[in-house]
């Protein structure tokens, strides 16, 4: 069955390839000939684009230069150009590779090409997008070398060390803003084409940009839409091929993967000096394919496949574009996923957008509409006009809800005020961002508070508790909790916990976490263990498992007391070192450590 399909696909391909003079029919783009698209392959984590040279005795296929950075930039170090006295960093960019060419030849076998070679390149110039902070740039390479040297020189006012650390932190972002203007040798003349630098294992492309290099593909006529099928969190449109019996094609999904956002932090793009949220979309996956196969059983399908996403034009509502800048849709080299960036004007704004996308995804996604074109068998395109792809709408955990107009009005302001009113955002040297949910530094605020106060939050800039309702929202889907402690002798300790999650009011804000992360902790003993699966208790709300109130017995603070606790961050603030565990303290294997200061942070 596979063979007959392949043959049919081949004959169709030859039909298109066989149209003589197609290159001349293809309108020139930006003064160069457009290329005839044959395939896009993913080899060793780099994307390979393949075109047909158009030679009459063909098909002769040409693999375009790889432009792929295959070395990690973690150990990048600045150098000095002794002649110009400029400092620079040097990034090796792979142009050609024999192993990858052999793999491309293998993957293209079914087209029976006369030859598959790398396209001949004569020169490459590097430049950056106008709004990139990277300025001076050069591509040092001569024809027949397999690796080019991308040199980024620093501005006078930036040190090369700053630049190299920025590149290490956001190499993908910085490299994506670099454009390589390249001359390819084609049919006896040189033609200029634009490429982007990509990063191995992270090859995402803006399809609207690189697809300009190719002749427009014809639209598919031999397809008939048959039905939409609902998947668990998404829906798909299915078409039937009329030219091959029993062959069904599914349009790319473009469904929101909410679980990826819950493990994503807010990121910073150094090349643009902006914070952003990365939203991950699913384009095709095995599970959805299986479901569609099952649901099409009444058609007795011989084969069911995904079409490949070719372009996705989006329109953004004015309310979304007024507050956020939406980046282009970037598609992965293996066609399985896509990314969309939401650039924010501030960190707080990104924080608010993240809550929204997690707790009520439709609030965000309804502002984006898509018009897609999908590639069928590398030959023709299916346009989906006004095609509004479905997104995973289901929320993880609970979203804020309210029963009256007044309580409803308060929820967004509650969230925003909690997060913005205190100096709550912090970054660590490893690039992760945290929001502080509890802080006790000066002792100026009493933590002997009622249930109602622990629920809504209290305190001010140095000492505060942001509130159980906010913590519950912030930890939706599970977050990383970081505990930072300062001892009386000046030593600092910290512990990190994965999968920290606080339920809603109906569960009495029950807290669970998956595990302490020893590699991210400097304590050897998990003093939170007692609190796992416990409900929250305060001096006026005893939800612990002991007959007396733990809160009353241990300083009248609120905590996830069990029977009772080994960590008492909301105990009494002390002005001297004391071994009394009614005070702020952490149990360390054999004894209580008195805490001088303590902070609880959640990764965002
Ligand atoms: C190659 O160039 C010749 C003359 O410049 C032109 O007639 C021919 O159509 C070109 N062929 C292709 C495949 O571009
Ligand atoms: C990509 O993954 C491969 C295999 O895991 C690894 O050897 C390579 O260093 C990675 N490339 C980059 C740029 O991190
Ligand atoms: C930055 O450059 C990109 C591409 O050149 C452009 O689409 C975008 O609008 C620019 N953004 C700003 C803030 O100038
Ligand atoms: C590279 O830059 C030089 C000098 O500006 C120019 O003459 C040449 O055409 C450029 N090449 C490409 C491929 O853009
Ligand atoms: C659908 O979403 C729910 C919650 O968002 C998740 O638990 C489930 O695994 C998702 N199903 C699929 C097929 O992704
Ligand atoms: C969604 O994202 C998560 C986390 O990045 C990933 O593990 C998972 O495989 C993704 N789901 C699908 C269906 O690709
Ligand atoms: C401070 O006290 C802790 C706990 O007793 C001990 O482990 C640490 O070594 C001490 N640090 C200093 C600087 O004395
Ligand atoms: C905490 O409780 C959860 C839920 O029962 C469990 O999955 C997890 O393993 C527990 N964590 C630890 C460290 O015991």
UniProtKB/TrEMBL annotation:
Position of the signal peptide: 1-21
Keyword Signal on entry: yes
SUPFAM superfamilies, per database record: Fibrinogen C-terminal domain-like
Domain Fibrinogen C-terminal, chain residue ranges per copy: 399-604
Alphabetical list of Gene3D superfamilies matching this protein: Gamma Fibrinogen, chain A, domain 1 (3.90.215.10)
Domain of life from the UniProt record: Eukaryota
Keyword line: Signal
PROSITE patterns reported in the protein's UniProt record: FIBRINOGEN_C_2
Record has Signal as a keyword: yes
A GO cellular component annotation in the UniProt record: extracellular space
Protein name per UniProt: Fibrinogen C-terminal domain-containing protein
Lineage: Eukaryota, Metazoa, Spiralia, Lophotrochozoa, Platyhelminthes
């Amino acid at each position: 069955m596979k063979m007959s399909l392949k043959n049919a696909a081949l004959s169709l391909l030859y039909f298109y390839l066989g149209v003589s003079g197609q290159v001349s029919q293809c309108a020139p783009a930006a003064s160069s000939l457009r290329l005839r698209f044959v395939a896009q392959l993913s080899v060793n984590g780099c994307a390979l684009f393949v075109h047909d040279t158009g030679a009459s005795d063909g098909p002769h296929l040409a693999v375009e230069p790889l432009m792929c950075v295959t070395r990690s930039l973690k150990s990048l170090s600045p150098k000095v150009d002794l002649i110009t006295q400029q400092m620079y960093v040097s990034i090796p960019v792979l142009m050609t590779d024999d192993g990858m060419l052999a793999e491309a030849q293998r993957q293209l076998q079914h087209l029976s090409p006369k030859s598959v070679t790398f396209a001949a390149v004569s020169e490459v110039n590097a430049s950056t997008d106008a709004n990139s902070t990277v300025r001076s740039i050069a591509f040092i390479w001569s024809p027949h070398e397999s690796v080019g040297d991308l040199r980024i020189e620093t501005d006078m006012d930036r040190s090369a060390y700053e630049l190299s650390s920025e590149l290490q932190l956001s190499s993908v972002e910085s490299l994506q803003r670099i454009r390589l203007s390249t001359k390819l040798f084609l049919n006896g003349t040189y033609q200029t084409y634009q490429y982007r630098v990509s990063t191995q294992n992270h090859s995402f492309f803006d399809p609207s940009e690189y697809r300009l290099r190719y002749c427009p593909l014809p639209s598919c006529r031999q397809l008939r839409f048959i039905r939409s099928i609902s998947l668990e969190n998404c829906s798909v449109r299915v078409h039937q091929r009329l030219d091959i019996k029993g062959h069904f094609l599914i349009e790319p999904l473009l469904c929101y993967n909410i679980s990826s956002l819950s493990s994503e932090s807010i990121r910073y793009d150094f090349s643009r000096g902006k914070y952003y949220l990365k939203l991950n979309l699913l384009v095709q996956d095995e599970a959805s394919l299986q479901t569609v196969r099952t649901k099409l059983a009444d058609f007795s399908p011989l084969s069911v496949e995904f079409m490949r996403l070719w372009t996705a034009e989006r329109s953004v509502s004015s309310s979304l574009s007024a507050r956020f800048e939406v980046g282009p849709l970037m598609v992965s080299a293996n066609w399985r996923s896509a990314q969309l960036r939401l650039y924010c004007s501030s960190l707080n704004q990104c924080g608010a957008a993240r809550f929204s996308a997690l707790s009520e995804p439709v609030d965000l996604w309804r502002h984006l509409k898509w018009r897609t074109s999908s590639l069928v068998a590398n030959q023709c395109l299916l346009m989906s006009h006004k095609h509004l792809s479905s997104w995973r709408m289901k929320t993880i955990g609970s979203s804020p809800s309210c029963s009256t107009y007044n309580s409803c009005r308060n929820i967004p302001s509650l969230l925003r005020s909690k997060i913005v009113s205190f100096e709550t955002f912090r970054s660590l040297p490893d690039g992760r961002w945290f929001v502080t949910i509890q802080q006790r530094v000066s002792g100026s605020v009493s933590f002997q508070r009622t249930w109602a106060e622990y629920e809504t939050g209290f305190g001010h800039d140095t000492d505060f508790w942001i509130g159980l309702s906010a913590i519950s929202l912030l930890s939706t889907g599970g977050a990383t909790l970081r505990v930072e402690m300062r001892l009386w002798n000046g030593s600092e300790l910290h512990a990190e916990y994965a999968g920290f999650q606080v339920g809603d009011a109906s569960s009495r804000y029950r807290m669970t976490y998956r595990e302490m992360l020893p590699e991210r902790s400097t304590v050897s003993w998990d003093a939170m263990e007692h609190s796992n699966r416990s409900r929250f208790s305060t001096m006026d709300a005893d939800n612990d498992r002991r007959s007396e109130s733990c809160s009353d017995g241990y300083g009248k603070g609120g905590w996830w007391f069990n029977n009772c606790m080994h960590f008492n961050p909301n105990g009494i603030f002390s002005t001297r070192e004391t071994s009394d565990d009614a005070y702020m303290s952490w149990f360390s294997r054999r004894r209580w450590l008195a805490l001088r200061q303590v902070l609880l942070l959640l990764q965002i």
